[in-house]
C-alpha cells in the first residue's frame, strides 16, 4: 500500500462538494433529509455490488496514464483525458463507491450546515464497522445508522466515521479517491444525466 492522502479540512470540503452539487442541479428542488439519506444508501448498495463483481481501482495505472505525455495526434483536452482514464481504471470500483458515499454525506452536511466532527481526535463513537463480519454486513450497519431516528448531524458524523473505518479496513486511500471523484464530477452533465 502506498502513502495515504491526509484527511483534509472536511468542513471546507463539504462546502466545496455542496457548491458543485448545486451547480449541477442536485439542489434545484429541496427534498427531505430522508430523500438524501436514501441516496447515500443507494451508493452503499453500489459499493457492495462493486465488491461482489470484484471491481477494484487500479490507481497506479491511472496515475501513470494521466501523467504520460499525450501523443501529438491526441486531440483530447486535459479534462477529457482525465475522464477517459478515470472511467478506465477508477470509476465504479469499490474505492470509487466508497468515495461516492462520502461525497453524498458531505454534500448533505454542506447543504444543512452540519459541522463534521467525525474525524476529531476527541470524537466519541461506538457502533462502527467490524473486521469480523463481511462487507455487506458492515454496509448494512452503516445503512442502519442512516435510518435511525435522531438528529441529522449525528447520523452524518457516525456514517462518515464508519466509512473511514471501512476504508482503513480495506486499505483504501479514501481522501485520494474523494478528491479524484470530485475532479471527475466537476465536468459531468447536469444532474450527471439522472432525474435526481
Structural class: mainly alpha
Shape call: globular
Which strand-content bin applies to the residues?
under 5%
Distance between the termini: 36 Å
Strand segment tally: 0
Number of helices, counting only DSSP H or I runs of 4 residues or more: 8
Q: Give a short account of the largest sheet.
A: none
Average of per-residue pLDDT values:
91
Tell me the Rg in angstroms: 17 Å
**What portion of residues is helical?**
55-70%
SSE sequence, one letter per element:
HHHHHHHH
Low-confidence stretches: none
Any chance you could write out the topology, listing elements then pairs?
Elements: H1 10-23, H2 33-52, H3 59-67, H4 78-89, H5 94-111, H6 135-147, H7 152-169, H8 174-186
What's the gist of this structure?
With 196 residues, this protein is mainly alpha-helical.
Structural write-up:
By secondary structure, this protein is an all-alpha fold. The chain contains 8 helices and no strands. It has helices at 10-23, 33-52, 59-67, 78-89, 94-111, 135-147, 152-169, 174-186. α5 (94-111) packs across α8 (174-186).
Summary keywords:
196 residues, mainly alpha, 8 helices, 60% helix
Amino acid at each position: 500500500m502506498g502513502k495515504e492522502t491526509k484527511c483534509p479540512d472536511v468542513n471546507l470540503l463539504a462546502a466545496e462538494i455542496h457548491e458543485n452539487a448545486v451547480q449541477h442541479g442536485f439542489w434545484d428542488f429541496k427534498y427531505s433529509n430522508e430523500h438524501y439519506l436514501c441516496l447515500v444508501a443507494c451508493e452503499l448498495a453500489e459499493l457492495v455490488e462493486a465488491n461482489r463483481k470484484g471491481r477494484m481501482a487500479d490507481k497506479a495505472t491511472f496515475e501513470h496514464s494521466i501523467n504520460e505525455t499525450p501523443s501529438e495526434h491526441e486531440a483530447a483536452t486535459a479534462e477529457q483525458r482525465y475522464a477517459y482514464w478515470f472511467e478506465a481504471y477508477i470509476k465504479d470500483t469499490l474505492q470509487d463507491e466508497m468515495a461516492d458515499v462520502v461525497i453524498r454525506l458531505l454534500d448533505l452536511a454542506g447543504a444543512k450546515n452540519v459541522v463534521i466532527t467525525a474525524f476529531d481526535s476527541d470524537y466519541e463513537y461506538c457502533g462502527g464497522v467490524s473486521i469480523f463480519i463481511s462487507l455487506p454486513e458492515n454496509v448494512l450497519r452503516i445503512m442502519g445508522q442512516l435510518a435511525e431516528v435522531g438528529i441529522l448531524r449525528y447520523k452524518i458524523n457516525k456514517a462518515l466515521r464508519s466509512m473511514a473505518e471501512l476504508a482503513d479496513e480495506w486499505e483504501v486511500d479514501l481522501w485520494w479517491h474523494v478528491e479524484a471523484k470530485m475532479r471527475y464530477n466537476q465536468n459531468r452533465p447536469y444532474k450527471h444525466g439522472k432525474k435526481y
